[in-house]
Amino acid sequence: MADIKYYDVILKPVVTEKSMNAMAEKKYTFLVHPDVTKSQVKEAVEKMFEGTKVKKVNTMNLDGKTRRRGMTFGKTAKTKKAIVTLTEDSKDIEIFEGL
Fold it and tell me: Structure pTM?
């Protein structure tokens, strides 16, 4: 396994109606690198966003979907999603503020 730095862990935020409603409870959803652990996600969030303290990290592996083009079948890439819960005294993450 390659050495993954903290800035390679978080790929992009997930912006859906369900994830936006969870932000009221200080839960933020990100797509993360498929090989990272929960402790690596916690470290990356605390280093990338100043003033944040992570309480809990939930991760889930998502298998690729089967897609078809004509007679040929293929699969999309596997992904991993992380739901990060912040503590009550933690600052909010700014990238979600204007959404």
Answer: 0.86
